[in-house]
Amino acid sequence: MIRILISADMEGVSGLVNWDQTTPGHPEYERFRRIMTADVNAAIKGAIQAGAEDVVVSDGHNQANNILIEELDSRARLNQGYPSPLGMLQGVDGGVTAAMLVGYHARAGTASAMLDHTWASKVMNLWLNGKVVGEIGLNSAVCGNFNVPVIMVSGDQAAASEAVDLIPNVEVAAVKVARGRSAAECLPLETAHQKIREAAARAVSRLRIDAGIQPFRVEPPVMVNVEFHTSIMADRVSLIPGVDRLDGRRIQYMAENMLLAYKFFRSAVIVAGD
Ligand SMILES: [Zn+2]
After folding, report:
1. 110 in Cβ contact with 119 (< 8 Å)
2. Which of 105, 117, 193, 229 is catalytic?
3. How many angstroms does the Cα of residue 59 sit away from the middle of ligand 1?
4. Given this model, what pLDDT does residue 211 score?
5. Domain 222-272, CATH
6. Ligand 1 center to 211 CA (angstroms)
7. How far apart are CA 72 and CA 117, in angstroms?
8. What CATH class has 3-106+147-208?
9. Residue ranges of the chain that CATH labels 3.40.50.10780
10. CA 56 / ligand 1 centre spacing (Å)
């Protein structure tokens, strides 16, 4: 039985080009949470068409309450609310076969990348065992901790190429081409959804014949390095037992495995403050 987890973020959804459109309370947000839901629906449809039998979706943006359940494909269940134990990947420990990352974005500091960041604007850089990663790398590594491969990623062209560089045989759907951090040439929604649906279907078909699908693994122990935006953020994170201060803005922490590395990073971002 093929069980799929869809982790959904918002910055990489079809047609979205600025923070207002991702921010609850802004009138534009209501448009884009509907489009986010439709992007997720396209992935659900493609996965099920190709033979997936169970789909769980985890809302992963902001407070994890963006997806409209009343518009979500009724064949899928929805994890929402914040904080949940596994956040953007809630459900990855529940025996899923593979994961899809929908509406994702490139890591902090990428050129021509829609709303590039790594978890929070206060994080300048994140390294796992010396390799710089963004949310695609971090979340794929957490999936790898549970032996779950990431088989499809949708977002802009920068998110798609970041995924391809990291994960062998991943299927991607680029729904927009960023021309800057907050400017992009966007596909019409119908075309974008067709691309997501087709990439999801190809990914599940590939999984069924086991064609070179491997989890993305970061071998334990996992050294986590974080460069924060300001030194006071690193001051605060340095109060966590086991954290080493490297310089003004950088800290280091050794975690026993990738799941603990993920939990440390999420806590450190909270402790860092504003
Ligand atoms: Zn987000």
Report:
1. no
2. 117
3. 9
4. 72
5. 3.30.1360.130
6. 31
7. 27
8. alpha beta
9. 3-106+147-208
10. 18
